[in-house]
Amino acid sequence: MTVPPAAPDPNAPPQGPASPAPAPSPVPKKSLQANTLIVMAGTLGSRLSGIVRQQVINLFDTTLTDAFNVAIKVPNLMRELLAEGALVNSFIPVYKTLDAAERRKLAQSFSGFLIAINLLLMALGIFAAPWVVGLLTSTHANIDRAIAIYMTQLVMPFLTLISLSAVAMGLLNADEHFRESSFAPVAFNIASIIALLLLPNNATWLAFGWLIGGVAQLLVQLPALRRFGLLPEPRLGGHPALGRVLKQMAPFTLTAGARQFLNLYVTRLLTDASQFKPGTQTGYANAEALFTMANGLFVVSPALAVFPRFSQHAAEGNWNEFRSLTAQTIRTSTFLAAPVSALLLVLAPYAVSVYNLKSGFDPNRFEAGSGILAGWALALIPWALVTILLRTFYARERTREAVTVSAIGFVLEVGLYRLLVPAFGLFGFGLSTTLSGILMAFALMLMYQRALGFPWQAVGDHLARVVPLALLSGIVAWLISRVMPAPGFFLPGLFGLAVAGGAGLLVYLLGATLLKMPEMAGLLRRLKR
Question: I want to staple 186 with a disulfide (CB 3.0 to 4.6 A). Which of 15, 45, 52, 466 is the partner?
Answer without folding.
Answer: 45
